[in-house]
Specification:
- The complex is a heterodimer of chains A (417) and B (236).
- Chain A has 417 residues and is mostly helical.
- In chain A, 72% of the residues lie in helices and 3% in strands.
- Chain A has 15 helices and three strands.
- In chain A, strands 1-2-3 form a three-stranded antiparallel β-sheet, covered by helices on one side.
- In chain A, β2 and β3 form a beta hairpin.
- The longest helix of chain A has 37 residues.
- Chain A starts with a helix and ends in a 5-residue tail after the last helix.
- In chain B, 37% of the residues lie in helices and 26% in strands.
- By secondary structure, chain B is α/β, with parallel strands linked by helices.
- Chain B contains nine helices and ten strands.
- Chain B has a six-stranded mixed β-sheet, sandwiched between helices. A four-stranded antiparallel β-sheet of chain B has the order 2-1-4-5.
- Classes of the chains: A mainly alpha (417), B alpha/beta (236).
- Chains A and B meet through α1 and α6 of A and β6, α3 and α5 of B.
Chain lengths: 417, 236
Amino acid sequence: MITIWRKEIQENITTYRFFVLTGLLFVLVVVSLIVSYGDYQLRMENYNVLRPQGSEAQKIILQPQPLSIFAKGLDANLGRLYTLSALGVEVHSSQQSINRLFSLFTVPDMLFVIKVLLAFIAILFSFDAISGEKEMGTLKLMLASGAKRAEIVAGKLFGRFTLVFVPFALLFLATAILVSLLPDVSASPEYWAGIGLIGGASAVYVLLWTATGMFASALVHRSAVAMVLGLGIWTLFVFVVPNLGVTVAQSISDVPPGDRVEMESRLTAIQSIYETLQRVKVTHEERDFARIMTQIHEANSHLFEQYAPRLNKLVGLTRGIVRLSPAGALGLFVTEVAHTGLSEDQRLKSAVWLYIDRNFKRLGGLEKGPVDQFRLEPMPIADILGGSTLADTIVLILFCAGFIGLATWRSLTYDPR
Amino acid sequence: MIQAIDLSKRYEDGLLALDHLNLNIQPGQIYCLLGANGAGKTTTINLFFNLIEPTGGTALLNGVDCTKNPLDAKKHAAYVSENVMLYGNFTARQNLDFFTRLAGRRDLKKEDYYMVMRQVGLPERAFEQRVKTFSKGMRQKLGIAIAILKQAPALLLDEPTSGLDPKAAAEFIDLLIALKSEGKAILMSTHDIFRAREIADIVGIMKEGVLIMEKNSAELEAEDLERLYLKYMEVS
């Protein structure tokens, strides 16, 4: 196996394919770093401007996480300003520091590079592993020389994996070190643990796509056909399934789009009552004011209690469908590790509501005294790994094992003539 | 050394490519298989290397069953194809190194490869040259070098001189004669009746998967092989 592994590297490392694809990877990693760090700096500026000063407890804004440079995920949501009152939460959707161009183009963060480009490169490096060898006429000579088919499969799989993953791993490590040295970034042990987990998930992901390319290669007798087949599988799993998953989950879930509108309209109604009450307050009719404030709070809590489980169900369904693709599972895993995933978003929403519930009297001026400072620490890595990422990890490993199995099965029965 | 006992192959589409072939090639013998395209010559060689499985009979290399113990059997034979295709980006030495390692030999040094390349007649300048610049004759020689380094007692060649110019073909045949004198058992499929007559200890003629004639060199002395071949091709 080592002989074939070494041959695969020696044979490919001097080719145009290696230089062009590795060069492309390098360029995109650099671009991703520049763009993502620039955006992180903007969000940090935004955070520093908007974060509560002193006893200004009516504002909530989360500090951007350094790992969001690698996986932006829901960071635009997580970094929004929440203004609190006894009536509920006002979420500021437009942030001065968020790069507007990101709405037009896909954010080229490291997750994008891994999920899309690295999978693409792995396919382009493996589509000719078996069929190309047959076309050259060397497969027959290899087998006649006494090489075991299983050794050929393993040597080729790990050889091509090495060609894709090692340059990426070096670039990724260099980027992680560089980011840790940049201003505004505190590289804690959690940061390095996150980097390690993203690197590990990337390794499984690249192996998976290398096996997919080899499977396509062993399925047909012409490399050109294998490439088309491999890219077809890539398109299906990287673009179609994850995007379709979100749409399908929304359409089959029982959370109607109007729900949010309804919630907002009721909040508007509540707002008007509140303003009326404010006028009443001036007339010092304290008893009515307290009663209506409590009613508003209860109405809001009721809304939240009804809405939250349905939203959680939608999120769960989306996760389930998106996980039918390795790219989807990787995206969910990496964003969770980077503290920019769905769990972190759900945690923030719950924490904000609990905070309001706890402090609504003081926020509404029914009680004198200082309001607690809002605190929400990022979820520890150990908790993240024990949560939904466990399912993502299992899905990634199963996909990887499945495609290795398919590639091996087809290669073992491949006709070399 | 190279033995086929009632060896048969019928493909999935029903074509009977080989019908009860019997061969027995001893060490130091060259057996030339003649026949038109599709006669079953390549199928025979593929069966010895277990590239396809027989539907009947047995192929043996040094007494080892090629279907039941393919990896063991392959240790006893080396293969040279009609058009030796190697890794174009590798030098001649790198190709030798790779294929001999695959065959289980990891003890060889650069000088050992050079020695064999000299033996097969490759020019010194070609040793560290990329194979993609090689002519077909040079690649065939390199193919023989790979076979020699495997140190297998049997050699199976599938139309190795096809497409070679006369000089290159003559050099190739000289190499085979040298290997025969070292005691190798050689099975060569070919269309070249004249070369076959020149070097073969036994000549077999195949037609539609059947070995229709087999004569040794003594029997061929008095015969015109070309006429014999044409006669067998017309008959039946």
